[in-house]
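Bit of a strange request maybe. I'm writing a small parser for structure token strings and I need a real example to test against, not something I typed by hand. Could someone generate the tokens for this chain?
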Amino acid sequence: MQSPARERVNAVAERLFAERGYKAVTLRDIAQELGIRQASLYYHFPGGKEELYVTVTERGLNAHAEGLKQAIRDAGPQLEAQLRAVMQWLVSHPPVDLARMLLADFPAVSEEHAKRLTQLAVESLVQPIESMIAAARERGEARVANERLAAALVLSTAEGIIATSRLTNRQPDELVGEALEILLSGLRR
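Reply from user aminoacidic:
Good idea to test on real output. This should exercise your parser:
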């Protein structure tokens, strides 16, 4: 069971790691935000920063997996509705920043943790979308030769929408329709 204190530590650490990345966050940063001594964090996470990062990353990826699967189920069987639901879900939750995780965060932790987190990221984020696209191809609704690439592009587009919203002063959910049109129709006439 999670104690309220451990849950607070998890929530603050998850937010800071998501905002800044593994390397840029220190246990001192987390302790200061919580208003506790840095040494107190070792009570909940004896393995220190890496254990805390792995714990909150697993938790976040598992939550995204459940959310994505539910969004796909609730959207019905049409690809466009499923893509819209997936993208709406992704932009309405804290961004994952999968590229940063794969290129900077995971290489900074032990090889064992990096492998486990990479596998979990694929299972949680890529595979639900990949399966959705493969099912649409089987129904004749999509002509995609590489479902993994298509799933990664959907994820990247959702993360790009969040960044674009800051550039355009529009809410991310307002941009989903436009991004979806580009994904489905492409840039060509």
